[in-house]
Amino acid sequence: MKFKSVITGASVVAISALALAGCGSSSSSSSSSSSKKSSSSSSSAKTTKVAKLTAGSKMKAGTYNLEEENYSHGYRTKMSITVNNNGKITKSNYDQVNKNGKSKTDDTSYNKQMKKIAGTNPKTYMPKLNKTLTGSAATGNVGSIDVVTGATESSKTFQNYTQQLVQAAQAGNKSTIKIDNGAKMKDGTYKLNEKNYSHGYKVTFAITVKDNKITKSEYNQVNKNGKSKVDDAAYNKQMKKVAKTNPKTYQPALNKSLVKSSDPTKVDVVTGATESSNTFIMYAEQLQNAAQKGDTNTITVDNMIFSE
Question: Which pTM value belongs to this model?
Fold first, then answer.
């Protein structure tokens, strides 16, 4: 959630509206509200209005690629985005392919079975996810991408990989991103820091890995003086009143959940802190990918800030 740390002279109605805009729903589904980073939801809005970028580098023109190195249940992910001269994504190709290069969308028996169990299938959710990147997320607004009901894990993977491709596009780095999916995490400490402040705060995140387990998780939101949002008494009091949670509560809960599972996809979204939860999960997956490679270089995210 992102609203100003000090709120004065505002009515309860105004504060409530602000909280709803910032937090969204706690449900991990396509019906969840989009975060304040987005001016419209990719799954529920009738328009595809693109929020204006106010901070963070614009993506450079070109085609950017990412691919998994290992197969899981016979498939691996391949993804690419194409960015135009205006810094907007004009094409997204997210797919899961087998060793013969055949897409999971063409696996008739798989699609039929998954549709029966989950209510969706690759033939439905893959095009839907790709479409978000030429709509509400065209400028790299990953926060506007909703989880598709029935395809939570694939949606989270899509968000993670999109974020990594956006980061590559911001830097103009066209080298294919290799994901050593399924590999054991190597011992070490892995760090990620946001570059830009939103409402006075930015994310810092570190995980410590030992024997393929995450033994320590340090996700935080800090201001320019290095002070944690957890210690912002006024902010915590106001958010608790409106959203029934606050950084002092949800940040330790998210860190604890990641250590318990060592799997970002098993971290639950905290009710009242949807945006922060989704950011946590996405960045945790990126750190996990770094740990699978054993790459201890600090990841600097030139995080995009969008108009509200």
Answer: 0.83
